[in-house]
Amino acid sequence: MINSELNQYAALYQTELLDNVIPFWTEYSVDKIFGGYFTCLTREGNVFDTDKFVWLQGRQVWMFAMLYNNVEKKKTWLDIALNGADFLKKYGRDEEGNWYFSLTREGIPLIQAYNIFSDCFAAMAFGELYKATGSEEFKQIAVSTYYQILERQEHPKGIYDKSVPGTRPLINFALPMILCNLSLSLEDVLGSQTTAKIVPELISNIMTNFYQEDTGLILENVSREGKFVDSFEGRLISPGHVNESMWFLMDLAVRYNDQSLIEQAEKTLLRNTEFGWDKKYGGIFYFLDYKGYPPQQLEWDQKLWWVHLETMIAMAKCYKLTGNQSCSNWFEELHQYSWKHFKDPEYNEWFGYLDRRGDPLLTLKGGKWKGSFHVPRAMYEIWKTLSSPSPLQKDSATLSNSRNKL
Amino acid sequence: MINSELNQYAALYQTELLDNVIPFWTEYSVDKIFGGYFTCLTREGNVFDTDKFVWLQGRQVWMFAMLYNNVEKKKTWLDIALNGADFLKKYGRDEEGNWYFSLTREGIPLIQAYNIFSDCFAAMAFGELYKATGSEEFKQIAVSTYYQILERQEHPKGIYDKSVPGTRPLINFALPMILCNLSLSLEDVLGSQTTAKIVPELISNIMTNFYQEDTGLILENVSREGKFVDSFEGRLISPGHVNESMWFLMDLAVRYNDQSLIEQAEKTLLRNTEFGWDKKYGGIFYFLDYKGYPPQQLEWDQKLWWVHLETMIAMAKCYKLTGNQSCSNWFEELHQYSWKHFKDPEYNEWFGYLDRRGDPLLTLKGGKWKGSFHVPRAMYEIWKTLSSPSPLQKDSATLSNSRNKL
């Protein structure tokens, strides 16, 4: 891509974020009576279910606080973030301070705190809102939640874990992956010395245990020794997760000046995207089996918005860091695919769930798992990445193989 | 359908059962080293995963014992049933006598006894095998498991239930539905007085609580008072479950001579099939939302083998009981659809999972949820139903509205 193309893309994503996507959530998602957000929204923006899912409540707080911090000090945005934070603060936690999975519209707990990602997105939310407000209370919620996540990380599901201890212990990719992003995002709150201690272990976990040297792929579940385990869970690959984590790693590589990590992320991103791409109908599969067997997930062949958007962020960042033309080509291919299939030509916001052929499987704009997060975050990240005046890697000479120094 | 057509269909399903489907499981599923069955089998019959899922182990024991009891006293069939029963007896239960969800190939427990349907299919298996062998041990396992199910039925997931008590208590359709079939199947073992006490409550639960008078549909989850609850779970309809339960109810109606129940089942079966039918591509949807909103299940639009086969059984039985031409028409439409899309033209056994358009989504013949059960049971039930010399309702004059007398 030449500079004028980069600028055009940047402007397009900026406009899509500010004139299309954010207005959708501003207009339709705020619950002005009970606080928090509606996320189950039809194509047009009508509320079809009022339950409140803590993942999505936290993510939307983070989103609006982040826009307030990084784009413009709009009071509306801060108010929307505070509306969600207030609801979460009042109703979101059980007696032990763990975050519920879901609440009724009024805030009565529905589903117990079995899902540690509720805690991850709550910590992310309150950390970002602390930056916006300076509120010590928000900082304290972010910090205590973060440390509770670290304490729970060996047994994230706690008493709700249905596997028999010892028979086939597996570790899952999602938590270390999210912690890479969360730890960097909370660096101001936790202190840079703390994150500098935690982050290298997370990176090493991903690139040593989950990364498979012989195939260049990353598995969703491995043994505690980082070995492939031939079972449904062990064979599972989630190309979207892998690519999302690769831009988290690239952000960390830039932060810690680690050229070697950039190269690993670049290689893994390209290998995994090639592996996950549907050669017949285009788009990236949701799930694949490492050995090519039938996955247990019936939704395996569907095309999900976040998978494609996270890959685009990763390709954009990778291109700016390495200049690798393959990243630019992939970015453009994914851009074409996504604007053709995920963008709704009639109403604001994007479709989330397509069938294998790229037709909408559900026309909702938000649901139990899709909220104000992946679409606007991707618009923001792509806009900022492609419009940065020079590559993020400002002085490539200073980026050395410094991973071991982390 | 005229008599010669009925006979032709009956012969076709008999042949498919005995020459195609059963040979597949006989040849590929038996684990001669560790006992039990492999169920994860590719299109050609190769084992791609060796885990043993208790639902499917129990169902296969039942299937082969049932064939031995009702079709022919083949030693191979009894041996296959005993091979699974022996494995289950040794490894299938935890210390409290509840049945695990899954085991390793060798029988080491993998997933805890959180799923009461493991117990249902184990009880069904040992009950049927008792009929084949007269073994008091098998009878005792069936009886004790059955009573443990009844004890657990208010809280079937036990400690693994993630919902917060009291906020939105829902009861689920699957257990009373399965218990209708299981109770009748265990009548010899439990004693007819016992089942005659239990069954009317099950029927009333289904046709009063889950059945919605105003729409004629059956919901998958309702409040404890049998009311619609506007939430993802409350709006869920599973047309396959409904139709499967309708033939369970028709079997009970015949057993207890209840004309009124036949009429209710007939009406519900036709209404629900009409509701579940995909007018665009044919076939019956896997899940639908009662209010037409997006379901949370991403697999909602897929066409599953058991949904279609269970509906065919129900239509065949209903036609023989009522002579309703709509049932005959639906049977023929489903027959055409199923033989065109689910039957594998090259290898034995049938495909299980099709996309909305009717193309195979997974080409497996068996997996974590598909075993030696719905295909052979449907072949058997359709064969027997359509070849019965006169309608099952042998003397319609004796079938009166005797439900209250049950």
Automatic annotation (TrEMBL), chains A, B:
Q: Name one GO biological process term.
A: carbohydrate metabolic process
| SUPFAM superfamilies per the UniProt record, alphabetical | Six-hairpin glycosidases (SSF48208)
Q: Which domain of life is it from?
A: Bacteria
Keywords associated with the record: Isomerase
A single MF term (Gene Ontology)? isomerase activity
Q: Does the keyword Endoplasmic reticulum apply?
A: no
Supply the CDD domains for this chain: AGE
Which Pfam families does UniProt cross-reference here? Answer: GlcNAc_2-epim
Note the coiled coil stretches, chain numbering.
none
Q: Which family does it belong to?
A: Belongs to the N-acylglucosamine 2-epimerase family.
The family database entries (PANTHER family) matched by this protein are listed as: N-ACYLGLUCOSAMINE-2-EPIMERASE (PTHR15108)
Q: What is this protein called?
A: N-acylglucosamine 2-epimerase
Lineage of source species: Bacteria, Pseudomonadati, Bacteroidota, Bacteroidia, Marinilabiliales
